[in-house]
Structures are given as C-alpha cells and as structure tokens.
Amino acid sequence: MEIEHASHCTYRIRYHMVFVVKYCKAMIDREKMEFLKSILLEIGERYWFKFDAIGIEKDYFHVVLGAAPRYSPSKIMQIIKSLTARGLFKRYPEIKKELWGGEFWTDGGHIDTVSEYGGLEKIKRYVEEQGGNITQLQLSDFQ
C-alpha cells in the first residue's frame, strides 16, 4: 500500500465497508454493478477516494477503499450511500417502487480498517471470494 499525499499530511488508510440494500432485497444485478462502479469512480475523483475492489451480491456490496484523514469513516459511508442511491434512483426509477420509503441502503453498515501488513490483501481476497456461486457475487477490480 502506497503512502498517499494530501496538502498538509501523508497517510496510508484503507477501509473495508459493507453496504446492505434496504430490507435485504435482491436489487443489484450485473448492469447495476457496472453502473455502481461508474458512480464510485466519479465519487473517487470528486473526494479523492481510492477504490481498490468491490464485491457485489444481489442485496449488499463490499468495497475496499482509501481516503484522506479529513473524512471520518462514517462520513465516507454517508457520501457513498447518498450518491450511489441518488444515481441508482435516477437511472432506474422502477426500483424505488420496490423499496418503501425511498431509501436504497439500510441505515447501518459495517466498517473495518485494513492494514497493508497482511490485512489489506486478506480483506481484498475475502471480498473477491465472497459468494462462490457465480449467480451470487459479482466482482469489479479498480486496478
């Protein structure tokens, strides 16, 4: 893992985050996965997040990313949730009918910090190996 540079600091921070679709509904297919990836790339450019990998199942997705210390982990999760949900609802308005209340993601989620000393590669491998059944997981690599 490389040391990143910001205007007044250097850092080496990686997170593993898990986002769950509201009501655990199976809403993410291959087409939506590719669209989510494009949204994440735009988010990365705007907020200087570095996405390493995503693993998507039909009702949730994992993401491994790095971010500057100016953002708290919960703020990073909030940014990703709000912008991906907004983009998905705009592109696929029919999914809003499936989710009462107009929210795509659950209120919660999961966040791990990841170290380059065994942790980063382990967690990337874990994300990549989720759902051995090919109908269950779709993986996209950002490298």
Characterise this structure.
By secondary structure, the chain is α+β, with helices and mostly antiparallel strands. It has one domain (4-141): Alpha-Beta Plaits (2-Layer Sandwich). Helix content is 36%, strand content 25%. The chain is built from four helices and seven strands, in the order E-E-E-H-E-E-H-H-E-H-E. The protein has helices at residues 30-47, 73-91, 95-98, 119-129; strands spanning 4-5, 10-11, 14-20, 50-57, 60-66, 110-114, 137-141. A five-stranded antiparallel β-sheet has the order 6-3-5-4-7, sandwiched between helices. A hairpin with a 4-residue loop joins strand 1 (4-5) and strand 2 (10-11). Helix 1 packs across helix 2. The two termini are 13 Å apart.
Shape: globular
The spatial strand order of the largest sheet comes to 6-3-5-4-7
Tally of DSSP β-strands: 7
Strand content: 25-35%
Low-confidence stretches: none
Q: What structural class should be given to the helix and strand makeup?
A: alpha+beta
Keywords:
single chain; 143 residues; Alpha-Beta Plaits; two-stranded antiparallel sheet; 4 helices; 7 strands
